[in-house]
Every structure is written in structure tokens, then in C-alpha cells.
Design a protein that fits this description.
The chain folds into three domains: 226 residues, Rossmann fold; 46 residues; 91 residues, Nucleic acid-binding proteins (OB fold (Dihydrolipoamide Acetyltransferase, E2P), Beta Barrel). It contains ten helices and 22 strands. The protein has a six-stranded mixed sheet, with helices on both faces. Strand 18 and strand 19 form a beta hairpin. It is α+β, with helices and mostly antiparallel strands and 388 residues long. The structure holds adenosine-5'-triphosphate.
């Protein structure tokens, strides 16, 4: 097991804003962040991400709880004595200094010799692939200014680098490029990155692990795959990617699955995180649109290799698997979006699902028409039983 770099134990932060009214910005957070990890704090605006980061940096004190760096309490250590650096969204560069001077400044303040500071600053600028050493910040693009801010944070070789929405001000294309560059850079330097973002795609792309936050609480911590494939709450399922939600009642369990009654005629199975739920409990089922498969009730089913089967035979084969849910429905909306087609299908007593079907063959071979009857099926484990 890797060493823990940063640990938060029962951390609470309250702000007193309007007289007596107290706002709990961070509500009893526990986190363990490992050495060399790219860790993302993800959540909507105002959920407490920045406050958490500011407490780790030392710009803010917790109201209660403990923050440990490599096993040592840091509550009484001022920010500049913590081996932690922060990169802010607004870069915070000195406008009157050149790129090189901006990067050297912190080292010189610490008493480094000029030649030594210069050599280390150039190394850091090479790492962020910036060569315009003599320019002033205003002569640089947003992406270049961000690189200076990064070089300035990395030059001191901190144990932990905190990044608060560092790509927020960049346009989409540059943002994507910088995401991959930051990941490569982090691997090169091996420093722990704690990265704040409200952009779920950015967190999924970049992070080794993600903590999803809402209203000051950490709802789930896991790898991008765990967060996406097995969300434990409706909020997490909804915040990350597109999800279908169906309401139902739990009517029993089978192995790791719950048996869920959706309406008078529709009963399905879905993977369950919470084995202790009782029967008749109202539950929500979450299913990702790309996990849903469709094939026409009439005619033939075509496979990516060009071969085909009669739909009725294919249905018999699918239904042989006890862990598959299969219901019949009707296409009510079709939306071609290039890589895949997005369908809305209705089934049962007014239930509906969004399905995304990859356009692997010619469009004419894979497309369904509005009003067409289709079989809808998915793996029980690809749908999750959630409590809220
Ligand atoms: P964003 O993505 O918009 O930056 P965030 O998740 O980083 O949001 P925080 O900035 O941590 O959220 O804010 C959490 C809550 O605490 C918000 O309701 C915010 O208004 C409040 N808050 C933050 N700093 C202070 C402060 N110094 N005084 C009073 N309230 C504050």
C-alpha cells in the first residue's frame, strides 16, 4: 500500500457570515490521499472543494478535525512552511516580472543563490515546455500564463501540489491539450496532485481517484471506473455522465442483485451496493444509456461482422442468460449524433429509457424508426439499485 500523503480526519469548516448564522462549508470530511496520486475533488459550485483545498494549503483553519501531512499534524504550521504549493485559476503572476523572474522569485526569497535559482527555474520551465523566458505575463496567452504558474509551483519541488480549477479560464481545445500535458507532467515529477474541478469529464480523464462532493460532504471516493460504473447515490449517478433513473419497489434479492418491481407488469434485476435493504423498500434504479441494447422485434439482427440471425432466435438466446433484463418497448424518439444514435424507448406502463447505440455499421443497418417495436435488454449488473 502506498504511503498516505494527506489525511483529513473529521474535518469541519464553518463560516459565520450574517451575524449569528453559521454556514457549514465542509461537513465532516474523511479523506486519505496517497503519495504520487492524481486525486480530484469533484462537485458542483459551492460544495466545499476550494475550502477543503485552502485548509490543506493552510490558508484556512478547520473549525474542528485534523489535517495530517505524511502522518504529522499541520494545523499549526503556516502555509509557507508546508511542503505544499497551490496553482490558482487566475494564475496570480507578478505582472512587472518576466517569466523567468516569476519562477525564480520564490527560490530567491528562500535564499537560493541567483545562479542556482536560475538553473532550477529553467528546469521547471522546460518541464512545462515554455521557452519565452523574457516575456512579461501580459505578452503570453492564457495557456502560457498557466504554464508559468505551474512552473512557479513545481520549482520548489513540493510534496503536494494543489490545483484549483487551473484550466477553468482556457478554451475547450487548449483545456483538453493541457489536461494530457498535466497528466504527463505529474507522472514525470511524481508529486501528489490534488485537483479541484466541477467538470466531471475532466476528473474522469485525469484522476487516479475522485472524491465526489455535495453540500460539504464527500459522497463517494473511488477510481473513475468505480464512480462511473457503481455509483452509490443518486447524486453521484446523476452528476457523472448521463443516467436513466427508474422508480420501483424492492421485492427480494438474488445474490448481489435486487429484484425490483417497476410497475404492475415489469420486474427487473439490478446490482446492489446495499445488501441490507428490506423488501417493499422504495428504490431508484440507475442505468447508463450505453449499457442498453436494442433489437427489432420483427426481422433480423445484424452483427458487426456482417452476419445476421432471426430476431426471434436471438431473443431466445438472450433470454437464456438469467442475469439479463429483457422487456419489449417502442421507439418514441430517434436522434442521430454521429458516433451513436440516441433513442428514447417506452415500455411497461408509461416507463421510458434513453438508449445510446453505437453506429458501428452503416447507418441504414443499425437505425430504428419512431414507432418501431423493439426488444430492450441489459445486464442486471449494469443497472444499480440506489436508495435515494
Ligand atoms: P466553486 O466551484 O464555485 O469554487 P466550491 O465547491 O469550491 O465552489 P467553496 O468555495 O469551498 O465551494 O464554498 C463552499 C461554501 O462556503 C459556499 O457556500 C461559499 O459561499 C462559502 N464560503 C466560502 N468561503 C467563505 C468565506 N470566507 N466566508 C463565508 N462563506 C464562505
Amino acid at each position: 500500500m502506498a504511503q498516505i500523503d494527506i489525511e483529513l480526519r473529521n474535518v469541519i469548516k464553518e463560516f459565520t457570515s450574517h451575524g449569528e448564522m453559521r454556514l457549514r462549508a465542509v461537513d465532516n470530511i474523511q479523506l486519505e490521499i496517497y503519495q504520487g496520486e492524481f486525486f480530484a475533488l469533484l462537485g458542483p459550485s459551492g460544495c466545499g472543494k476550494t475550502t477543503t483545498l485552502r485548509m490543506i494549503a493552510g490558508f484556512e483553519d478547520p473549525t474542528s478535525g485534523e489535517i495530517l501531512l505524511r502522518g504529522n499534524q499541520v494545523q499549526n504550521v503556516p502555509p509557507f512552511h508546508r511542503p505544499i504549493n497551490t496553482v490558482f485559476q487566475d494564475y496570480a503572476l507578478f505582472p512587472h516580472m518576466s517569466v523567468l523572474q516569476n519562477v525564480m522569485f520564490g527560490l530567491e526569497m528562500e535564499g537560493a543563490r541567483k545562479a542556482d535559482a536560475r538553473r532550477r527555474a529553467i528546469e521547471a520551465l522546460e518541464l512545462v515546455r515554455l521557452t519565452q523566458y523574457d516575456r512579461k505575463p501580459r505578452q503570453l496567452s492564457g495557456g502560457q500564463q498557466q504554464r508559468v504558474a505551474l512552473a512557479r509551483a513545481l520549482v520548489k519541488k513540493p510534496a503536494v501540489l494543489l490545483l484549483d480549477e487551473p484550466l477553468g479560464a482556457l478554451d475547450l481545445k487548449l483545456r483538453k491539450e493541457m489536461q494530457y500535458e498535466l497528466m504527463t507532467m505529474q507522472e514525470q515529477v511524481g508529486i501528489t496532485f490534488i485537483y479541484v474541478t466541477h467538470d466531471q469529464e475532466e476528473a474522469l480523464t485525469m484522476a487516479d481517484r475522485i472524491a465526489v462532493m455535495d453540500k460539504g460532504k464527500v459522497l463517494q471516493v473511488g477510481t473513475p471506473e468505480e464512480i462511473y460504473e457503481t455509483p452509490t447515490t443518486r447524486f453521484v449517478a446523476d452528476f457523472i455522465g448521463e443516467t436513466n433513473f427508474l422508480q420501483g419497489t424492492l421485492s427480494g434479492t438474488e445474490g448481489n442483485c435486487g429484484i425490483v418491481k417497476l410497475d404492475g407488469s415489469t420486474i427487473i434485476k439490478a446490482g446492489m451496493n446495499e445488501p441490507s435493504l428490506s423488501d417493499d423498500q422504495p428504490v431508484t434504479i440507475a442505468i447508463r444509456p450505453e449499457k442498453i441494447n436494442l433489437f427489432a422485434v420483427e426481422g433480423r439482427v445484424r452483427y458487426p461482422d456482417g452476419s445476421s440471425d432471426r430476431a426471434s432466435e436471438y431473443k431466445t438466446a438472450v433470454m437464456r442468460d438469467p442475469d439479463i433484463n429483457l422487456v419489449e418497448g417502442t421507439i418514441t424518439s430517434t436522434n442521430y449524433i454521429g458516433t451513436d444514435t440516441r433513442y428514447v424507448v417506452t415500455f411497461g406502463e408509461g416507463l421510458h429509457l434513453v438508449a445510446r447505440v453505437q453506429n458501428y455499421g452503416l447507418r441504414s443497418e443499425t437505425v430504428f424508426q419512431n414507432g418501431q417495436r423493439v426488444n430492450i435488454f441489459w445486464d442486471a449488473d449494469h443497472s444499480r439499485v440506489l436508495l435515494e
